[in-house]
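Hi all, posting the design record for the shared folder.

TITLE: backbone redesign
STEP: 1 of 1
STRUCTURE INPUT:
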């Protein structure tokens, strides 16, 4: 009897000390990159398709409409819903820029900074027309520099466009970037921002015109007050 009891006790002790505690650890993949998603929309909330969008390192903005091109990371066209998607991005700030977004017969230049976060898809809606400014122009006579010139048409055009006498009339007729001076010589024109502009001045009654009045810049949300001088037409 004692022998059987001792045998049982020894078996229990052996089992107790021979068992090891096992801990199951679930391995979780740690996300190290994030993604950025931008939706380019018009004033009615519709996506703008076919616009080329560029992704740059933060700090790559060199000036008005300019970037350091060696900082370019990627570029992609917006899809039918106006969406671009950049993925596998290290967690930091990026510049997302579009040079020529078409809307309402105009071309807009947009620039947005976005922060990538590991394991997260950050999203932003870009209303393209928000990237506009106002050129507030006052037109005076070259003769005395004090007489306002009324009822003359002032047309703004991007300075990179080469206007010549053979295409000047076509541009004037087709563009929406124009207005007519009031009795005090004032006219305001809302234009896409981050672009430099020159001007055409013409008399719609007799078609007399002149162009090349200097280059002026405009930034998003700004009003640029400009004084121009012209011979009466």
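Okay, here is what came back for every position:
SEQUENCE:
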């Amino acid at each position: 009897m004692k022998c059987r009891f001792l045998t049982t006790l020894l078996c229990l002790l052996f089992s107790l000390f021979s068992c090891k505690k096992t801990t199951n650890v679930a391995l979780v993949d740690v996300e190290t990159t994030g993604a950025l998603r931008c939706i380019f929309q018009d004033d009615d909330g519709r996506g703008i398709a076919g616009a080329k969008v560029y992704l740059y390192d933060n700090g790559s903005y060199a000036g008005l409409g300019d970037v350091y091109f060696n900082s370019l990371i990627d570029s992609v066209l917006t899809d039918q819903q106006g969406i671009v998607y950049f993925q596998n991005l290290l967690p930091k700030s990026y510049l997302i820029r579009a040079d020529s977004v078409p809307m309402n017969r105009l071309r807009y230049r947009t620039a947005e900074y976005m922060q990538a976060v590991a394991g997260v898809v950050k999203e932003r809606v870009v209303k393209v027309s928000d990237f506009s400014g106002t050129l507030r122009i006052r037109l005076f006579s070259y003769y005395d520099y004090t007489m306002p010139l009324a009822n003359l048409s002032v047309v703004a055009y991007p300075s990179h466009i080469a206007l010549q006498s053979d295409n000047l009339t076509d541009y004037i007729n087709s563009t929406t970037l124009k207005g007519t001076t009031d009795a005090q010589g004032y006219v305001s024109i809302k234009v896409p921002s981050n672009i430099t502009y020159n001007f055409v001045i013409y008399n719609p009654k007799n078609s007399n015109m002149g162009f090349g009045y200097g280059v002026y810049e405009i930034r998003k949300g700004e009003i640029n007050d400009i004084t121009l001088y012209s011979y009466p037409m």
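COMMENT: The chain has two helices and 17 strands.
Let me know if anyone wants the other runs.
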